Amino acid sequence: MTDPKDNVPNEDEPQVEGDATNAQEPEDLIEAEGPDVEVPTDAPAAGGPDASATDAESDLSPEDQALLDDAARGIEEDKLSQADRDLVADMRADMLRAQAELVNFRKRVERDREANRDAVIAEVVRALLPALDDLSRAEAHGDLAEGPMQVIAQKIRGGFGKFKLEQIGEKGEPFDPNVHEAIVQLPTPGATGQTVADVVEPGYKLGERVIRAAKVAVAVPA
């Protein structure tokens, strides 16, 4: 049988450090620590944003840089307050409205310019219509069949033709009060409507504008 006295440690024997059997309390067990390592505080962290920012920006293409700028502007707009966004929206609406008004103004100016041009041409042609009437009468009497007046008449009519001057009023066509001026009505047996029986003086229109109505005699039902 083992004597209990054998388990009592001898105070005269030296104690071996690190022996777990000789430790009385957990605090007596001291873990080994390695040497302290100093970490420089001014060194940038590995993979940080400053590591290769300049190189990355220099490698961007113009298209990528434009996309990056647009994204930055979008971020800045996202940071705007609601009042600022409303102000920006109002300014954009005003700009679009001003552009639309400018386009409409240009169209009105161009339309007025064309109308004024046609009005001036119509006045000039209207002033020369008596000369065309004389040419028509001379041609009807056979005075323009030969001689230099025939060439002159062709040139004058060709010049008016460039401005789309058209003679109106033909015998036998239906009477139209928009282009005809009835100076006499002729009751005609068998007539079912109003038709041009004779052209007393031809009319003219410039494009779609009638500058002088044709003076005609109208056949009406008897």
Automatic annotation (TrEMBL):
SUPFAM superfamilies membership: Coiled-coil domain of nucleotide exchange factor GrpE (SSF58014), Head domain of nucleotide exchange factor GrpE (SSF51064)
Chain residue ranges for the region called Disordered: 1-79
Location in or out of the cell: Cytoplasm
BP-aspect Gene Ontology terms: protein folding
Subcellular location, principal: cytoplasm
Keywords of the record: Chaperone, Cytoplasm, Stress response
Basic and acidic residues composition bias: residue spans: 70-79
Matches recorded under PROSITE patterns: GRPE
GO molecular function annotation: adenyl-nucleotide exchange factor activity; protein homodimerization activity; protein-folding chaperone binding; unfolded protein binding
Biased composition annotated in UniProt, kind: Low complexity: 40-55
Biased segments, Acidic residues type: 25-36
Pfam families reported for this sequence: GrpE (PF01025)
GO terms under cellular component: cytoplasm
Family that this chain belongs to: Belongs to the GrpE family.
HAMAP family in alphabetical order: GrpE (MF_01151)
PANTHER family on file: GRPE PROTEIN, GRPE PROTEIN HOMOLOG, MITOCHONDRIAL
Function: Participates actively in the response to hyperosmotic and heat shock by preventing the aggregation of stress-denatured proteins, in association with DnaK and GrpE. It is the nucleotide exchange factor for DnaK and may function as a thermosensor. Unfolded proteins bind initially to DnaJ; upon interaction with the DnaJ-bound protein, DnaK hydrolyzes its bound ATP, resulting in the formation of a stable complex. GrpE releases ADP from DnaK; ATP binding to DnaK triggers the release of the substrate protein, thus completing the reaction cycle.
Assembly and oligomerization: Homodimer.
Protein name listed in UniProt: Protein GrpE
Organism, scientific name: Curtobacterium oceanosedimentum
Taxonomic classification: Bacteria, Bacillati, Actinomycetota, Actinomycetes, Micrococcales
Gene expressing this chain: grpE
